[in-house]
Design goal:
Blueprint: E1 2-3, H1 7-11, E2 18-23, E3 26-33, E4 50-51, E5 54-59, H2 70-74, H3 90-93, H4 95-99, H5 103-114
Antiparallel strand pairs: 1-4, 2-3, 3-5
Amino acid sequence: MYWKNGKTNASKLEQEDLILLTQKGFVTHLVEVLDYKLPEHKIDRGEFNIYRSVKVLWVTDWKNPSLAKADKVFDYSEVLKYQGGKVMKLEKITSRHWESKGGFAAFQNHVHSQLNLE
């Protein structure tokens, strides 16, 4: 997975972190970080020269992407305002909204059911 000159942002991730990727209001992928740190060498991909190794765990149904509307998956309409490719810890951005609904564990269970993960 590549970042646009985002060494600081890409460095926030730890091995086994899960990332929900969103685009244009839809959750598109769930990936797991495989490496434990940024590689020492850069690759020549123009502006997108920072990368982390990830494993794809889930991909949206491109024939019916409306099943993965981000505000529905997150049960949090504010998620539609988050843009720019930066990694954000879900525990932080969802904490207030999910506090009264059972906390972060309840959020994880909700996402699990919305994405039909086994």
